[in-house]
Amino acid sequence: MACLAFHRQLSCRHGAGFSLVELLLVITLALVLLSVGVPSLRAWTVKRALQQTAEALVSDLRLARSEAVKRGALVAVCASVNGQSCAASEGTWADGWLVFVDRNGNRGVDAGEDILRVQARSESVASLGSLNPATDKRIFSYQATGWAKVAAQTFLIKPVDVGTATADLTRLVCVSNQGRPSLRPAGTTQCS
Q1: Which run of H or of E encompasses 96?
Q2: Nearest to 118 by CA among 57, 71, 74, 72
Q3: Cα separation of 81 and 92, whole Å?
Q4: What mean pLDDT value characterizes the chain?
Q5: Rounded to whole angstroms, how far apart are CA atoms 192 and 190?
Q6: What is the dihedral of CA 125, 146, 111, 98, to 10 degrees?
Q7: pLDDT single digits (tens) 34-62
Q8: Which of 20, 53, 84, 159 has the fewest CB atoms within 10 Å, measured from its CB?
C-alpha cells in the first residue's frame, strides 16, 4: 500500500519505531546524565542530612535549656546509643542523643525520669564531636536558671565519604561555656 501524505511517507520508509542506533544513542545519553547526576544527588542528600543533624542538636540543647527553666529542674542532654540511656565510653554523639529530666542529678536516665526527646543516628554522619574526641563532653546539664556549667564544646559534624569534597559539607555547632548553642555558617571551621 502506498503512503499518500508526506508524514505517512516518512513512517512508511523508516517504520513506526526506533532504529537500533537511535535506541543505543538514547540509552548512552541517559547513562551519561545518570553518571553525572547521581553523585551530585548523593552529595546533596548528605549535605541536607548534616544540616538537619546540626539543627536538631542546636534545637535539642535549646529545648533542654528552656525546659530546665520552665520546670525549675535539672534537664540534661547526653550522647546515647540506644535512645534509652546515656552512653558510657563506647558511644559518641554521632550515635544519637537524648534530652531528659534529671530529677536526682546523677547524670543518668533513671526510672520515672521523663525522656523529652530522642535523636537517632544519621547514616550520613561519619563523626560528630571535637577534633579531640577524648575531651568531648558526654552530657550537658542545664540548671533551673537555664545555665549549664563549664559547657564549652565544639561539635564538628563530618559527613560520610560521598566521593566529592566532603570538607565543603562539614557543619559546626558551638556551645558556649554557659550552654548556649549556635550553628555556624557553612564553611566555618572554628568557634571563636
Answers
A1: strand 96-101
A2: 57
A3: 8
A4: 85
A5: 6
A6: -10
A7: 776 666 777 788 889 999 999 999 999 99
A8: 20
What is the pTM for the complete model shown? 0.78
- As a whole number of angstroms, the distance between CA 35 and CA 25 comes to 15
Which one has a higher pLDDT value, 165 or 131?
131
Q: How far apart are CA 56 and CA 173, in angstroms?
A: 11
Query: What does the DSSP assignment read for 4-67?
Result: -SHHHHHHHHH-SS--HHHHHHHHHHHHHHHHHHHHHHHHHHHHHHHHHHHHHHHHHHHHHHHH
CA dihedral 56, 61, 66, 72 (to 10 degrees): 140
Question: Who contacts 150 (Cβ-Cβ below 8 Å, separation ≥6)?
Answer: 177
Q: Which residue has the cell 546515656?
A: 86
What mean pLDDT do residues 87-114 have?
90
pLDDT, mean of residues 176-191 = 88
